Amino acid sequence: MTNTLSEARRAELDTVAARADAAAAPYAATAPGERAAALVAVAGTLAAHAAELVALGMAETGLTEARLNGELTRTAVQLRLFADVVRDGGYLDARIDAADGDFVLGARPDVRRVLTALGPVVNFAASNFPFAFSVAGGDTAAALAAGCPVILKGHSGHPRLGARTAELVAAALDGAGMPDGTFQFILGQQEGVAILQDPRVRAGSFTGSIPAGRLLADIAAARPAPIPFFGELGSLNPVFVTPAAIAERGAAIAAGYVASVAGSAGQLCTKPGFVFVPAGHGLAAALSDAAESVAPHRLLNPRIAAGFGARRAEIFQTPGVSVLAEGELNEDQDGQGWATVTIVSVSAETLRAQRERLLEEAFGPLSILVEYPADADLAGLVAELFEGNLTATVHIGAGEDSAELRELVRVLSGHAGRVLFDGWPTGVAVTPAMQHGGPWPATTNDSSTSVGTAAISRFLRGVAYQGTPQALLPAPLQDANPWNVPQSFAPAGQSRSWGSAS
After folding, report:
1. CA-CA distance, 337 to 293, in Å (whole number)?
2. What percentage of the chain reaches a pLDDT higher than 70?
3. Are 434 and 117 in contact (CB under 8 A)?
4. Segment (H or E) for 320
5. 19: part of which helix (H) or strand (E)?
6. pLDDT digits over 105-114, tens only?
7. Three-class DSSP category at 379
8. Would you state the pLDDT for residue 241?
9. Catalytic, out of 71, 148, 269, 361
10. 239-421: CATH, from 3.20.20.150, 3.30.420.10, 3.30.300.20, 3.40.309.10
11. Which of 10, 24, 320, 461 is most buried, by the most CB atoms less than 10 A from its CB?
């Protein structure tokens, strides 16, 4: 990408990076209680301005009031959850190995290790989650909790909402006494690239499309000093339904499927893109009826509407595709699109034959039902057809178990970050154990998550201190433990008993 920023704009970005860099050390050194209080202050400020922010979101994205209210609540909950993580201090993984003259490999010095903040992080806001994965969303919350200043690159799909949310976040952090430059907001594609390339930025995070995410990941990797880049990109989220599940609750499965595809007009990274059902499933009428009851929903912006229209047309024109629920896409004079649910059906053999045309995400309310024969090797289909995904779902009958089912679950766990049963993947719980990631192309780093308390680890690195005087140790490693964080202690003499536990 050619960057044609003016000298004045480059000077502005240099100031942004300099402020973040200056804030890095003092912000990382803030005591847990102070940093946690700042996160809670941000959550409270956003909640207090909910009506204003939701109105801006509705105007710019077309998402419903109920959806945006729920998303804003989720955003505040994320911030409060990370506040508790910071107060607990366990995320620092403080380890102390006492000096040991009798160490089995020779005298061991005093060694202490702790996780410390990476430094300034640039976070690229998402189009489809203007709160939860945007200005004050999960990446921002995790980076701030880790002690990293954040430079937020706002999304062009909701610029006014982004700027106003950023004002509130910055004011709340300032009011809580955090260093100047702890949080800053920029707009513009070229601006985002330039700040990602700045040597003072130490990590990047992104939620969006595969092409944009790959471009940014490559930029981060190509820097003279490469930096980690955590992108959440595309996902097809396959669902597998057994004959026993169809027999027990076929109608409920059909209704849940349509509702999951219809939610937020299908503009969710966890939308079920492919649902595998046994041939002769008998759900066609139920699916069609459920889809017809869904009211039109505006897509986020004209670019997404155009992309969805082109993808939908390509699927319709693919040989072997049968339409179960045609749905509609209507565009106004400004290019804004209103869509209803589209569901098409193919055989497993057609999916194999037409994989080049069909195995690509349709970002909008469209999903593909795949009919498999009685003797199908579902685990083999996963291995043959799918790359990495955020989620994989299995619907089974009560008490159902078999070697084939266990193999399917084993294979799915290698292809997805979250494997769920008898539910639908839309809706990602904000809870400590959540994993929202997966192998490429779901993410650029399949060992990380962008939801759940483990998300903080992306913005930390380990540092060990050997033979260091107490006064020069960071607070979490001092014997006095002024931050009162959990410390893992390996006493002298322990090494001679390693491996003897039964």
Report:
1. 19
2. 99
3. no
4. none
5. helix 7-28
6. 999 999 999 9
7. helix
8. 98
9. 269
10. 3.40.309.10
11. 24
Which residue ranges does the chain devote to CATH 3.40.605.10?
7-233+448-460
What average pLDDT does the structure give for the chain? Answer: 96
User: Beta partners for 286?
Assistant: none
**Among this protein's residues, is 232 annotated catalytic?**
yes
The helix (run of H) or strand (run of E) holding residue 352 is: helix 348-353
Here the tokens at position 295 are 């009211």
Q: Say which CATH class 7-233+448-460 falls into.
A: alpha beta
Are 236 and 266 in contact by the 8 Å Cβ rule? The answer is no
pLDDT band at 442 (very low <50, low <70, confident <90, very high): very high
Catalytic residue among 232, 326, 328, 361: 232
- Residues 380 and 412: beta-carbon distance below 8 Å: no
Cite the residue boundaries of each domain of the chain with CATH code 3.40.309.10. 239-421
Dist. CA 150–CA 287, nearest whole Å? 45
pLDDT per residue as tens digits for the range 13-59 = 999 999 999 999 999 999 999 999 999 999 999 999 999 999 999 99
